[in-house]
């Protein structure tokens, strides 16, 4: 049974662009074939704690001391949930030019050298698709002052793609604050065009990645 792990991290509620787009992707994933299921984890509503002990970054055989059983159980739940998924979609709103702290905490729990990564062969998640749905408030077009100010996607590519071996796809929408910030007035049409293009891209990915 193909399973999609659907993660949201936006604090924007019903106004969240990333939440709306990840939901559309999940719906398209379900519609793309029989027997599919979606496991949803809302990192904003149920945030994982910051990693409480450095030893949790390592598998049990590499730890220098004991760890809290409850913290270890939560980490195992998050890791097992990820390993059981055939595909992953993550809502990545840009907060202060980086990912939300809730998403970073999730990354810290699931990036476990020797368990989700491997130095001797292909990691267990090698080749599995992950779709990053990125929502950015300002203008990030090439050649603009903000073009290199997205500090969320590069580390996610590094960890999920390079370390875990996943097949990373990025679908980004900018100008999400065009209805709020005076300096973005006049950008609403461009934002709507980006959003429509993102919806089309996500629909195609949902069909193709299954």
Task: Report what the structure shows.
A 5-stranded parallel sheet has the order 2-1-3-4-5, with helices on both faces. The termini are close together. It is of the alpha/beta class. The protein has a single domain, classed as Rossmann fold (3-Layer(aba) Sandwich). Helices cover 34% and strands 16% of the residues.
| CATH homologous superfamily descriptor | Flavodoxin domain
Strand order of the largest sheet: 2-1-3-4-5
User: Sheet with the most strands?
Assistant: 5 strands, parallel
Number of helices: 5
Overall tally of structural domains: 1
Q: CATH topology, which one?
A: Rossmann fold
| Poorly predicted sequence stretches spanning 5 or more consecutive residues | none
CATH top level is Alpha Beta
Strand percentage, roughly? 15-25%
What's the gyration radius in Å?
Answer: 18 Å
State mean pLDDT (0 to 100 scale): 93
- Helix content range of the residues, please? 25-40%
- How do the helices and strands follow one another from N- to C-terminus? EHEHEHEHEH
Specify the oligomeric state.
single chain
Distance from N terminus to C terminus (CA atoms, Å) equals 11 Å
- Using the 3D structure, state the CATH architecture: 3-Layer(aba) Sandwich
Shape type = globular
Number of strands: 5
